[in-house]
Specification:
It is a single chain. Strand 9 and strand 10 form a beta hairpin. The model has no long low-confidence stretch (mean pLDDT about 95). This protein is of the alpha+beta class and about 625 residues long. The termini are far apart. It is built from 21 helices and 23 strands. About 35% of the residues lie in helices and about 20% in strands. The strands form five sheets. Strands 12, 13, 14, 15, 16, 17, 18, 19 and 20 form a nine-stranded antiparallel beta sheet that branches. It has a five-stranded parallel beta sheet with strand order 7-3-2-11-21, covered by helices on one side.
Length: about 625
């Protein structure tokens, strides 16, 4: 049996689903190949979306016309905006989701996407002709041909699960590993290696003593992930906080001899920023407790997730340790935590479009690029799907197969993520943080649509309704800012209210924007005082709070935003200096040996990218500038 498409996506996880819908919405005839249609976009670990920097990525996916934000809002059972005590560059949305409903909402989304077919099967062999990926063969003997192939196989490539000394092949608990597909890719000269991740125990909430835990409620304000669609529809549920203790630690230490992480069984590197509980004990022996979050898996299930207790220790050790926690003294579990090793491909072999430098028309996204997290996967999937469709020539706006859609570091966290991967590579699972972005004041969660929606609309990925909503919001925000910049207030009309709000009274008249810029005041405070401002804020037909917040952030942080924009524009001068193909680095003895080796291996596109390669010094960059001048 032979099937023909423009784009084939291998893997139905978070990267694969975003890649498939992006490609199809670009107009490419797309096929998503997945092993189990009932586990589309399965939340293999925590059923939560967002978090520090991750929430910004989900906003960006949504601004680009992606789906993760909409699906999350439709299935959220607790929403919180993290880091509200800090500046808006640090605000990060996070939602706990109903795991089962999340899958079926994604299924509904895929089923209603034009140009998209779903094929339940398993890829076994990549087909390459004359250095170009042209399709895949499956374990059931089906051949699928396409102009672009996107690999988003997650943890399934030669996946091996560990609980104590027991090892079972699999890509996820109770699901088979994908064998041979890695080798079919590697034989074309693409390097790969192994990584490790893990997941915690799942707990029966009927056996939990919640009275011994601290409740953590969500927020019920206007914030959400998607700039489109309705507000949260499901009943909101609390999470719970508890702690390990010395007894728990003693029970865990007793099992370290049988830990796959410490008995030599697991050789690959795990995530630094989401370590197992046994790794925490070994790394921080002085700590007498560790924070845990007990989180619901859904509206209608007794299953709960113990965030912070990832483990691959033997089952009896895990259970014994859990029962030393007061709130879990009578706990029953659905399954223990486990670790999993899997194949990934060196991302320095990729272009910024996520296309392979080695095999044309072959794209990679998600954990196969050495990342961790649904959000990082979804962001890569969105870009890979767009570029796979462009390579296939499916977009009428960009018919050339050489066209690519790339986001710069000052345009999106997705741009930072991809640039880090292809420039620096990975030696451990990559997780996004706000600290990785040098322009995070420009990359706020509230302005993702301002940065990306018009680009996405011009490209054809964001649809007309998405674009029209952004234009309405843009006009409303501009109108509020202009009103505040051009409307004055007099001391006699406002000083008593300013003193009541704990801020210095005016000696002279000033613009409303000057008052909003004060740290003690908000735009709502001023609207409560000034009826004319309240009338302007009430003017938008919908999402009034969201629009007012966007205007306030731009007014309050105007100076910081403008300064960072100037810095970013200066760096663009180096981004515009193309160096790919202009040097034979092995012959440049004027630069350091390490610099030559790194430049030769990565072959950067621009001088700015070269400057970010670890091991390439500023003096090496200066040499390249001199040589370019010659």
């Amino acid at each position: 049996m032979v099937l023909k498409y423009d784009v084939i996506i291998i893997g139905g996880g978070h990267a694969g689903c975003e890649a498939a819908t992006a490609s199809a919405n670009m107009g490419a005839k797309t096929c998503l190949v997945t092993m189990d249609m009932n586990k589309i976009a399965q939340m293999s670990c925590n059923p939560a979306v967002g978090g520090i920097a991750k929430g910004q990525i989900v906003r960006e996916i949504d601004a680009l016309g992606g789906q993760m934000g909409k699906v999350t809002d439709a299935t959220a059972i607790q929403f919180r905006m993290l880091n509200r005590s800090k500046g808006p560059a640090m605000w990060s949305p996070r939602a706990q989701c109903d795991r089962g409903k999340f899958i079926w909402e994604w299924r509904r989304t895929l089923d209603h996407t034009d140009n998209l077919d779903v094929w339940q099967d398993q890829a076994e062999e990549l087909i390459v002709e004359d250095g170009q990926a042209v399709g895949v063969r499956t374990i059931w003997g089906v051949t699928l041909y396409a102009k672009s192939v996107v690999v988003t196989a997650g943890t399934f490539l030669n996946g091996l699960m560990h609980i104590g000394r027991k090892m079972v092949k699999g890509g996820r608990i109770a699901e088979p590993a994908v064998e041979h597909f890695t080798e079919s890719i590697a034989r074309h000269g693409i390097r790969y290696d192994r990584m490790k991740t893990g997941t915690p125990v799942r707990i029966d909430k009927r056996t939990v003593h919640f009275e011994d835990m601290e409740i953590q409620l969500g927020e019920d304000d206007f914030h959400q992930f998607s700039f489109m669609g309705g507000h949260r529809a499901l009943e909101q549920r609390p999470c719970w906080i508890c702690y390990t203790n010395d007894e728990v630690h003693e029970a865990l230490r007793g099992g370290l001899a049988d830990s796959p992480l410490y008995n030599g069984q697991i050789q690959s590197i795990g995530p630094r920023y989401c370590p197992s509980i046994e790794t925490k004990l070994v790394t921080f022996p002085e700590r007498d407790h560790h924070l845990l979050f007990l989180e619901p898996e859904g509206e209608d299930t007794n299953e709960m997730y113990l965030n912070g207790f990832s483990s691959s220790l033997p089952m009896d050790v895990q259970l014994n340790a859990l029962r030393k926690i007061p709130g879990l003294r009578d706990v029953k579990v659905y399954r223990p935590g486990y670790a999993i090793e899997y194949d990934f491909f060196d991302p320095t072999q990729l272009k910024h479009s996520l296309e392979s430098k080695v095999v044309k028309g072959l794209f990679f996204a998600g954990q196969v690029n050495g990342t961790t997290g649904y959000e990082e996967a979804g962001g890569q999937g969105t870009l890979a799907g767009i570029n796979a469709a462009l390579h296939a020539g499916a977009d009428s706006h960009h018919p050339s197969a050489d066209c690519q859609f790339v986001l710069q570091r000052d345009e999106a966290y997705i741009g930072v993520l991809i640039d880090d991967l292809v420039t620096k590579g990975v030696d451990e699972p990559y997780r996004m943080f706000t600290s990785r972005a040098e322009y995070r004041i420009l990359l706020r969660q509230d302005d993702a649509d301002a940065r990306l929606t018009e680009k996405a609309y011009e490209l054809g990925i964001a649809k007309r309704d998405r674009y029209e909503w952004w234009m309405q919001k843009k006009e409303a925000v501009t109108r509020i800012i202009d009103f505040c910049d051009n409307t004055s207030v007099k001391p006699k009309d406002i000083n008593s209210q300013l003193e009541a709000l704990g801020t210095t009274p005016l000696r002279f008249g000033c613009k409303i924007s000057e008052l909003i810029a004060r740290p003690q005041l908000t735009i709502k405070d001023m609207a409560d005082i000034l009826p004319q401002l309240k009338a302007v804020l009430d003017e938008p037909a919908n999402r009034k709070e969201e629009i007012a917040e966007a205007a306030e952030v731009n007014i309050k942080y105007k100076g910081y935003i403008e300064r960072e924009r100037l810095i970013a524009d200066k760096m663009h001068r180096l981004e515009n200096i193309k160096i790919k193909g202009r040097f034979n680095y092995s012959e440049l003895h004027e630069i350091s040996t390490e610099g030559r080796q790194k430049l030769e291996r990565i072959d950067p596109e621009t001088l700015a990218q070269a400057s970010r390669i670890p091991g390439v010094s500023p003096s090496d960059i200066n040499v390249l500038l001199v040589l370019l001048g010659r």
